[in-house]
Amino acid sequence: MISLRGKQKRYLRASAHDMRPLFSVGKQGLTKNWLDQLEDAINKRELFKVNILANSEVDTTELKTFIEENSDIQVVQTIGHTLVLFGESDEKENRHYSVTVQKI
After folding, report:
1. pLDDT tens for residues 16-57?
2. I need a labelling partner for 3 at 20 to 30 A (CA). Which of 10, 46, 58, 84 fits?
3. CA–CA distance from 94 to each of 16, 41, 54, 87, 89 (Å)?
4. CATH number of the domain encompassing residue 75
5. Under a CB-based contact definition with an 8 Å cutoff, are residues 88 and 78 in contact?
């Protein structure tokens, strides 16, 4: 797990600016299955957004805590009901953002 510094987070926030949320949290809330899907997506993309739906009983603080305590995924930014997530891919061919982040 890469420990992110300010410049690295700034780069990741800028890279995620144009992205649309890839996952949503709804009525079912936070489950182990949902977290496993996040980890699979991190291995393919390394950086994406998650949106909390209006009908969800989870708030951004709960979601951030759940993700960071139960996985190696880091929350880079929280804007309203949207979180930007980053994690280093286990597969070398999918490491695009993490290679750049380590150079910063």
Report:
1. 999 999 888 887 778 888 889 989 999 999 899 999 998 888
2. 58
3. 16, 11, 33, 11, 6
4. 3.30.110.60
5. no
Q: How many residues does the chain have?
A: 104
Structure tokens at 21: 């949320």
User: Can you give the residue range of the structural domain that contains 79?
Assistant: 4-96
Whether residue 104 lies inside any domain: the answer is no
The total domain count for the chain is 1
Give the ranges where the chain is alpha helix by DSSP (H).
6-16, 32-45, 60-70, 97-103
Share of residues in the chain with pLDDT > 70 (%)? 98
Q: Which neighbouring-strand residues pair with 83?
A: 50, 78
Looking at this protein, which amino acid is placed at residue 102? Q
